[in-house]
Amino acid sequence: MNNTSHNGKSIGVKQIAVYGKGGIGKSTICANLSAAMALGGSHVLQIGCDPKQDSTRLLLEGRRVMTVLDYLRATSPNDRSLKPIVHIGFAGVACVEAGGPEPGVGCAGRGILSALDLLESLGIGSYCYDVALYDVLGDVVCGGFAVPLREQYADVIYIVTSGEFMSLYAANNILRGVRNFEERGLRM
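Above: the chain sequence. Below: its structure as tokens.
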């Protein structure tokens, strides 16, 4: 069953992007949201958009998994499928980690673009998820990290912050990025 429309956006899937400065607790919040929704009967997909690859660790009992970018580097285009990069975690949550480049080599934001493009091309939208959560590093002002802000990915955007200066600075940058992508009203 295909649940995507002509513009690539999933029909009926609530898409939530959670942003915040690194280390603020957004991955823990995302994992708990995913677990709660799955326990409530929703089919949930959580995509970690952070080079640290730790978004889904709580859902996967600490297990490190094949990231989308590692898979892209290691697998020829004709041999690619979703199975090696979509991992089932607690309460049936489908877990994906985008991954990132080696430190100092490449662009993590571009990696998010590549990861989301691969997921789309392999048909992730044809699975019947009720909710998709994007756990996104928010202390980098970069076009790649802004992709989940765009309406085709996020119906709702949450920012996790504290009173610490760098956390507020990151939140302000995220809000400025959201303003650049608002087309049909507030999603915050």
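The first strand starts at residue 14 and ends at 20.
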